[in-house]
Each structure stands twice: as structure tokens, then as C-alpha cells.
Design goal:
mainly beta, Jelly Rolls, 2 domains, 8-stranded antiparallel beta sheet, 7-stranded antiparallel beta sheet, binds (2S)-amino(carbamoylamino)ethanoic acid, binds manganese (II) ion
């Protein structure tokens, strides 16, 4: 926050096919199912996204609920803290994909920060609904990406037809990035976990750093390269494995 006698500036941008938001610009909200949490709505249909993504800060000793409604699937990723997800201990780096039919309660034993992502599950003929799935980032192999050992990809959700989206973590060593500008029908909801760099969004290179959120809509030309002294890491959503509805 700036002092009352100072000017305000921001790297925040909202365009037709993308948006970039530094963390400090989000006002806080509450949610009925997370009454003690401070919630930032990173992306929502009001922006053009076909999903919603929250950043949730939950104080130690309080709880929140991932409520099922038979329609929305939910992905969570713990950025920091620790707690119990129903009877499972989770901590920084824990993640899971929750079926639209399952409800879970999260009780924070430490001050916790997590990403919660929700979208309508797209059923497909002949494909059974997936079962809720949990994992630890530290146990997901970082695969060399595009034949460059300085760019590595962790795939948190298996690339199988049961799942209608991917959630991946990219790591780029300084000086490395995506080897081309890519443009595709899939959307992204992307949170910077570490480091800094420059992101190419629909014709413009923009500086980005830890805690920034980027929404990329369909056919947003995009690329990235990492700068700064440490590797850059980001977690991102991508809708996959379904026909385009007409
Ligand atoms: O999977 C992807 O589409 C990825 N290469 N996009 C990105 O990192 N912006
Ligand atoms: Mn992409």
C-alpha cells in the first residue's frame, strides 16, 4: 500500500484475451464455506474465464469446506502452512483433485495459504467420472521439457481422458523459457510460485514475479523467459481432453 501523499502505479492489466494481476491489488473477501479465511478471487467468469480460482488464507485453528454439488470439480494446492483435509495430513506442496460428488473439510493447524480452483466438470460419453485424487508435489517427477534440461514440467493430474484439465508446474532456470510463442484454444490460470521473468501476452512482453496471477483466454499468443538469480516456477491450469462444444 502507498502512503496517502504518494502516487499509485500498477502492473495490473486487463485485456480481451488476458489479464495480469500482482497480488497487492486484490481486495479481500469472505466465503460462506470459509468464514474465517481471507479470500482473493484471482479469476472468475466476470473476467472472461470459464473457471474460478481463489487464493485462500486460513488462520491456524479454523476450517473451511470444499462442498460438493455434483457439478463442480475442485483442485487445491497448498502454498504454505499445514492442516488436515478430512483425515489426511496436508502441507506445503500437497494437492488434490476433488470429484464433484465428494465433500472435504480442511482444518488448518498452521496459518495456511492455498489455491482453490473450480470449474464445471465436462462429462464425456463413455468416460467414467474420476475418483478424488491427492498427491505431493515433491513426489511428482520433473520431466525435461522440449529437450532442454533447464526447463522442467511436473504434471500433477494424469493425462487421461477421465480428467478434463491439466494442472502443471513449470520450472525454468534463469535465461531459459518457452522456445516459441504458442497460441491455443485452451485457457490458463497461472500463479507465479517463485522467481521472476518476462511474459509475452498477445504481443507485449511484461515483467512478472512471484505471487503474480495471469489469466490467458483462448488463442492468447503467449511465451515466457526467466530472468533473475533463481529458477522461476509457476503452476498453471489448462483445459484438455474434451471436444469443443458448439
Ligand atoms: O502447456 C502449455 O500450454 C504451456 N506451454 N503454456 C504456458 O506455459 N504458457
Ligand atoms: Mn500455453
Amino acid at each position: 500500500m502507498r502512503a496517502p501523499d504518494q502516487l499509485v502505479h500498477s502492473r495490473a492489466r486487463v485485456a480481451q484475451r488476458y489479464a495480469l494481476f500482482p497480488l497487492e491489488g486484490f481486495p479481500l473477501s469472505r466465503l460462506p464455506s470459509w468464514p474465517d479465511a481471507e479470500v482473493r478471487v484471482l479469476a472468475a467468469p466476470a473476467l472472461g474465464a470459464k473457471f474460478v480460482q481463489y487464493l485462500i488464507d486460513l488462520p491456524a485453528g479454523t476450517r473451511g469446506e470444499f462442498a460438493s454439488d455434483g457439478r463442480l470439480e475442485t483442485f487445491y494446492y497448498m502454498l504454505s502452512g499445514a492442516g488436515k483435509l478430512t483425515d489426511r495430513s496436508i502441507k506445503s506442496g500437497s494437492f488434490g483433485l476433488l470429484s464433484p460428488n465428494d465433500s472435504f473439510t480442511f482444518s488448518a493447524t498452521e496459518n495456511s495459504r492455498l489455491i482453490v480452483f473450480r470449474k464445471v466438470y465436462e462429462q464425456a460419453k463413455g468416460i467414467e467420472l474420476f475418483k478424488s485424487y491427492h498427491g505431493e508435489e515433491s513426489k511428482v517427477k520433473a520431466e525435461v521439457w522440449a529437450n532442454n534440461a533447464a526447463s522442467r514440467l511436473q504434471t500433477l493430474i494424469p493425462d487421461e481422458l477421465q480428467y478434463d484439465f491439466a494442472m502443471n508446474i513449470f520450472t525454468f532456470d534463469p535465461g531459459h523459457g518457452l522456445p516459441y510463442v504458442e497460441t491455443h484454444v485452451m485457457e490458463h490460470g497461472l500463479l507465479f510460485l517463485q522467481g521472476k521473468g518476462v511474459y509475452y501476452l498477445d504481443g507485449t512482453w511484461m515483467e512478472v514475479e512471484k505471487d503474480d496471477f495471469i489469466w490467458m483466454g483462448p488463442y492468447c499468443p503467449q511465451s515466457f523467459y526467466a530472468t533473475g538469480p533463481t529458477p522461476s516456477r509457476y503452476i498453471y491450469y489448462k483445459n484438455v481432453n474434451r471436444e469443443i462444444s458448439l
